[in-house]
What we know:
By secondary structure, the chain is an alpha/beta fold. It has one domain (4-270): pyruvate-formate lyase- activating enzyme (Alpha-Beta Horseshoe), CATH 3.80.30. The chain has ten helices and eleven strands. The structure holds iron/sulfur cluster.
Amino acid sequence: xxxxxxxxxxxxxxxxxxxxxxxxxxxxxxxxxxxxxxxxxxxxxxxxxxxxxxxxxxxxxxxxxxxxxxxxxxxxxxxxxxxxxxxxxxxxxxxxxxxxxxxxxxxxxxxxxxxxxxxxxxxxxxxxxxxxxxxxxxxxxxxxxxxxxxxxxxxxxxxxxxxxxxxxxxxxxxxxxxxxxxxxxxxxxxxxxxxxxxxxxxxxxxxxxxxxxxxxxxxxxxxxxxxxxxxxxxxxxxxxxxxxxxxxxxxxxxxxxxxxxxxxxxxxxxxxxxxxxxxx
Length: 280
Ligand code: SF4
């Protein structure tokens, strides 16, 4: 399906966050062409007159985002944390053309912003902006890595860059001296069955030089589960069943124990102290 792209004027750009580890969020785009089939942000479709099933097929470019920052940043306390993004990927493919994320980062660098500017993406395009990132006082870049198997990432994260490309991006950022973290979320269902796969994931992240992790259990709210069922029609039923069960107490306890061992084994700093859990 052809990606619908439209430039829009947003009313505001810095939004107060309800996330556990961010004070404000900055989403340079509405919609996300990466179209991950587990994406919790698919609810955003409804805000622009689309259906959940349309998620991944449209991106609206907030063309005035850098101008809005000029107005809104003076109101933000100097020691708060701003996350790019929360309901889109700031380095999805059209960022290469529109450069909205890059312009926002340039603003933070030019203004000597003291707020912590935290980026989370699935794309190695973030390495394009290493020189700007170096000029920001307090910044960090996270890469979402849910698997080390490119076929699995292709399946669940339809149009996102391969997992191997993300691991390489983390290595490059670390070599450039940028503070990094990995976001392992959501934990995919096969991990509870395969200790080796989970160990390999932690080992490969560690080998990039990254020391900090966030880990997140899958969010299976009804709208996400429905989309997953629709999109994952060809996945074998047993694996899908694991998804449905993946918030049962037994399943989570088992996975949490494995995670604790691996965090210790590879000496990671697990941010927030434990895996993030979403209440259904
Ligand atoms: S990259 Fe993030 S925002 Fe984009 S579809 Fe995937 S999970 Fe959703």
